[in-house]
Hints:
Blueprint: E1 9-13, H1 20-31, E2 34-37, H2 38-51, H3 59-68, E3 71-75, E4 82-86, E5 89-90, H4 92-95, H5 98-107, H6 111-122, E6 130-134, H7 137-141, E7 147-152, H8 155-168, H9 175-191, E8 204-207, H10 213-227
Parallel strand pairs: 1-6, 1-7, 2-6, 7-8
Antiparallel strand pairs: 3-4, 4-5
Helix pairs in contact: 1-10, 2-5, 3-6, 5-9, 8-9
This protein binds 2'-deoxycytidine-5'-monophosphate.
Amino acid sequence: MNHTPSIPVLTIDGPSGSGKGTVGQLLAQRLGWHFLDSGALYRALGVAANRAEVDLGDKAALARLAMTMDIHFRPRSGGDVVDVLLNGEEVGDRLRTEESGRRASILAAIPEIRLALLQKQHSFRQPPGLVADGRDMGSAVFPDAILKVYLTATPEVRAERRYKQLKDKGFDVNLRRLLDEIRERDARDAGREASPLKPANDACILDTSQLDISGVVERVYGLLRERHRPG
Ligand code: DC
């Protein structure tokens, strides 16, 4: 149950590489709202499971770990980078690898884990507001959000964005392989039974293939201002 409905939430969902993370962080900064990167929760659980040597088939132990892991996001000033603290240790770079995304996508298909992470996600809803990015933020986690945005882009555009992002961070990446991984992950995220990747019925769908990040931020900010004025 979500007990804080009066605090406004903006949800930004979409597939991997749609730009939702960067757009979400920039909007959170502009609005002075909190930010939830829900994918990082699933990714961090993969790291925590690895460290605790919990088998990816042991659903009960994974759900326990999901409930007890301590995770915080700490924005770095002046940019769109957020440090991710798992049990006090910065793990941001480890979470951004494709292997971490693959593990997260496997964990995210387990209903017990989605349930265990629900309360943790609700706890990010703090005044003055929350920008939440993920796959099911508008459809399942924050159904009463004041604005639900669903960002899409073609798999080719998303693979190129991911390629640039990872290259800039010094990772050794291959565009063809990234495209295959994106398609594989899309199929798993959209095909699973528990909260599959799909826009909420009342979401605004925005194709970002032809837009740059600032264009998307402006569009979403405009939509939000039509519905919400700070009190
Ligand atoms: O957004 P991301 O690439 O960091 O997400 C990693 C994986 O976690 C992704 O394959 C799907 C899953 N995920 C999810 O199922 N629900 C969310 N709200 C966020 C992420």
